[in-house]
Design a protein that fits this description.
This protein is α+β, with helices and mostly antiparallel strands and 228 residues long. 21% of the residues lie in helices and 37% in strands. Helix 2 crosses helix 3 and helix 2 crosses helix 4.
């Protein structure tokens, strides 16, 4: 695996896309700091220097791109579990610990010189403190893990998972770590904020939500747990 270590970068995903034509595959791009870390739906991922793990795994895309985010989430959990940390997955792409978000995942697919590539971007708050006020649920793992070692562990698990997991096996690994199943949630549909109960995650990794109108299947979007 080709490993690139950067002190500061705008975004490891952006770097991967810009340099894809010249990079061997797979490439692991690790940064000490991101000045414009990106999350889903245009959100910013807070990435201060020296307190987190920010990296992108660039590899050739396969036909199951829709399952890359669940694979990445399980890979992150397995890496943290090997350090006796017990995270959970908040559908669809966030990792939580103690009720706070400690990791975000952004997977992108793009074409470069006739190749379809995947950039799996992962940011983990290791010892970060003093989060901006707009991130009230952000938290940290609370452990000074070795960034390169941890990134390699996650990357190898992610790369190997297509062979290790059938869809059913991956789904089982994902579901057993689910934070949201069985919880009352809010979700957005057509600009409206609606409520329901997260009852399951189906074979396509869609969230099944029980509502007064019946069970709805969410394929994407933001959800939040209703705290009672």
């Amino acid at each position: 695996m080709n490993i690139i270590r950067l002190d500061t970068v705008d975004s490891t995903n952006t770097y991967a896309r810009a340099h894809a034509p010249s990079l061997p595959l797979p490439s692991l791009i690790i940064a000490r700091e991101q000045t414009a870390g990106r999350g889903r739906q245009g959100k910013i991922f807070y990435s201060p220097a020296g307190t987190g793990l920010y990296f992108t795994l660039l590899f050739e895309a396969d036909e199951n791109f829709d399952f890359v985010t669940p694979r990445a989430a399980v890979a992150v959990c397995k890496a943290l579990e090997s350090e006796e940390i017990s995270p959970q997955i908040k559908w669809v792409n966030d990792i939580y610990l103690g009720g706070r978000k400690v990791c975000g995942i952004l997977c992108e697919r793009f074409e470069s010189q006739g190749r379809m590539l995947t950039a799996a971007g992962i940011g983990i708050n290791l010892t970060t403190r003093d989060f901006p006020g707009e991130l009230p649920l952000a938290g940290s793992v609370g452990a000074a893990l070795d960034p390169v070692e941890t990134a390699e562990k996650i990357a190898l698990c992610l790369l190997n998972s297509p062979a290790d997991y059938s869809r059913d096996a991956l789904l089982a690994e994902y579901k057993k770590r689910s934070l949201i199943t069985g919880k009352e949630i809010e979700y957005t549909e057509n600009g409206r904020i609606l409520t329901g109960k997260a009852v399951d995650i189906n074979e396509n990794f869609n969230l099944e939500v029980e509502t007064p109108e019946g069970v709805k299947s969410l394929s994407s979007g933001e959800v939040s747990i209703i705290m009672r």
